[in-house]
Each structure stands twice: as C-alpha cells, then as structure tokens.
C-alpha cells in the first residue's frame, strides 16, 4: 500500500488522471490524499470533484474550495476568472457540494499533518486538529450558511486564544487556507502572493520559523514556490507545483518521500 499526496488540482482533471495512471494508483490498495484547491482556474473542476469523491480521497479544504462553497451556499459572487459555473449548474451539484462541505481542514497521521496553506509555528499538531475541527463543526452545523456569508475577510490578522465567534473561525481559516508570509509575532500578511522575494519587510514564509516538535507538514496553496521551501526550519513538503499555471501536477509518496510529476497541459503564466 502506498499513500499518494497530490498538490492543488485547480480543475486540472486530465493531468490528475494522467498522474494517477503514472503512479499505477489502485484505490483497492492505495490511499489518496489531496491537499486542497480541487477546483477553479483549470477547465475540469466538475470532473475533479467527481473523481475525488468517487475515489474516496482524503481532502483538506483550500481557499478556492471555500470560495466555491461561499458562492454556492453563502450568497457570494463568482469572480471574472473563476471556472466554477459547470459545478453550479451540474445535476449532481448538491451532492458534490455536500461532500466538499464535509471535508476537514487538516488530515493527521502520527507526526504528519496535511493542510492547505500551513499552520502557525506556535500551534501543536493536536491544537491545529482541534481548531480545524471547530471550523468543520461550523460548516456542518445548522448555521453553516451564515458562517459562509461572513467567512471572507482579512481581520483579525493575528491569532489569539481568546478570539471568539466569527473572528476566531475566520482567523483559523485564514491561517490554514490562505497563509504565506508571517511576522515573528505570527501576524499574517495577505497582500504578497508571489515568490519569496515578494515578502513584505519584517515578514518571512511561515515554514522558515522553527517549531517545538518534529512535525512533518504537507501543504499546497503557494504555486510560486514550485515545490521548493528554501531555508525551511522544519520538515515540510510544498506540493503545489503550479499545474493550473503551466507548471506540473505533483504527488508525494508518503512512505518513501518520492516525488512524481506530470507536466501541465496549459500554457505557462504567472500564478
């Protein structure tokens, strides 16, 4: 049995299928983990959702997955470059959205944690799991529509244990689904979205700050890194290699650390 952890699909269904074939993935024998952002940007978002559900993949929610849920069930609007209309008009729309809305923010196995964007250096794995569980409970509760309507926003931009209500939930989602650069006091920056040279003054990539444990963290979200985490102070694997932007779709074999990639079928462009 192998566990394959695949980076952000972003609707790149043809590459997803090709990568599974290259891995000789067998759902009766192997396990499939997806690091979030299954949808948007690529042409096959609907097919990616259907494939992930059919294969019983273990997924975590990314910012684009949340965007789909907000647009479908929280009164949000699609953006100009979104490629989500096919999902919203699909006959199995509600079943797919139900499945997506049930996905967690973290998947943990021993000292390994999969999360879309990352976790704060001060958070233990158990704390990250518990905080992600708070968001999952809100997503599955009777007030999930109200939660989705109020989800997006950049404040608060620093975690505090005494945060409550939507401020608390929004901050957890922003860390786990949107984070790139943080300050030494763990303040979040939401403006810089490119490579490491785009760091604001006083900020650095979250993975360049040490942790108190020996956690192994698997994340996506940051296509501009192209899978590289220079000067990382922790054990970390960046799995978004920019398939939607003309890069590649990459899988990590969890048991061996081997990386397997399929080139994108899309023209190269900046994330």
CATH class label: Alpha Beta
Question: Looking across the biggest beta sheet, what order are the strands in?
Answer: 3-2-1-11-12
Tally of helical runs? 8
How much helical structure, as a percent, in the residues?
A: 25-40%
CATH topology: Purple Acid Phosphatase, chain A, domain 2
Give the ordered list of helices and strands.
Answer: EHEHEHHHEEHHHEEEEEEE
Number of strands: 12
Describe the global form.
globular
Percentage beta strand: 15-25%
Largest sheet: 5 strands, mixed
Rounded to an integer, what's the Rg over CA atoms? 17 Å
What structural class should be given to the helix and strand makeup?
A: alpha/beta
Query: CATH H-level name... which superfamily?
Result: Metallo-dependent phosphatases
Task: Note the gap between the termini.
Answer: 34 Å
CATH architectural label:
4-Layer Sandwich
Low-pLDDT stretches are none
Average pLDDT number: 96
Q: Domain count, please report it.
A: 1
């Amino acid at each position: 049995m192998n566990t394959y952890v695949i980076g952000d699909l972003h609707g790149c269904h043809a590459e997803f299928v090709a990568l599974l074939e290259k891995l000789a993935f067998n759902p009766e024998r192997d396990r499939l983990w997806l690091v979030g952002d299954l949808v948007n940007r690529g042409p096959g978002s609907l097919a990616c959702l259907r494939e992930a559900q059919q294969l019983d993949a273990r997924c975590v929610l990314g910012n684009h997955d949340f965007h789909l849920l907000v647009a479908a069930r929280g009164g949000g609007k699609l953006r100009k470059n979104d490629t989500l209309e096919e999902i919203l008009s699909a006959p199995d729309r509600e079943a797919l959205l139900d499945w997506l809305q049930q996905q967690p923010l973290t998947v943990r196995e021993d000292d390994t944690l999969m999360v879309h964007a990352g976790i704060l250096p001060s958070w233990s794995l158990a704390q990250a799991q518990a905080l992600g569980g708070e968001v999952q409970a809100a997503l599955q509760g009777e007030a999930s529509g109200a939660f989705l309507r109020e989800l997006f926003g950049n404040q608060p931009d620093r975690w505090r244990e005494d945060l409550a209500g939507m401020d608390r939930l929004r901050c957890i989602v922003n860390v786990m689904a949107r984070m790139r650069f943080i300050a030494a006091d763990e303040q979040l920056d939401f403006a810089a979205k490119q490579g490491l040279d785009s760091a604001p003054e006083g900020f650095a990539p979250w993975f360049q700050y040490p942790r108190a444990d020996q956690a192994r963290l698997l994340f996506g979200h940051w296509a501009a890194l192209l899978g590289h985490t220079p000067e990382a102070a922790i054990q970390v694997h960046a799995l978004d290699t920019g398939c939607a932007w003309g890069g590649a779709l990459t899988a990590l074999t969890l048991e061996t650390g081997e990386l397997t990639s399929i080139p994108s079928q899309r023209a190269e462009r900046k994330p």
